[in-house]
Design goal:
82 residues; 2 helices; five-stranded antiparallel β-sheet
């Protein structure tokens, strides 16, 4: 799947993902995420490929949305389907 900014996606952590990645997906990904940016090297992630995501559930509930980077090698990204 081609990941581009603006897509509404479902994110699932791989079984060997870090606890940080698993927590972010569990805590913030109930209604999926909006892709904000994709980079081949993210310094904050140790210079690995990453995706900047914005939580949908926080926005819908009136809270400021979570915005953060997740490493691509730790997650499966699929198009959101209602």
């Amino acid at each position: 799947m081609l990941i581009v900014p603006g897509l509404h996606v479902r994110v699932s952590p791989f079984h060997d993902a870090t606890q940080r990645t698993q927590n972010r997906v569990r805590e913030r990904g109930r209604d999926g995420f909006i892709v904000r940016e994709l980079r081949s090297s993210v310094i904050a992630l140790g210079n690995v490929k990453g995706v900047l995501l914005m939580s949908v559930s926080d926005s819908d509930s009136g809270r400021d949305p979570w915005l953060g980077w997740l490493p691509m090698h730790e997650i499966d990204v699929q198009l959101w389907k209602d």
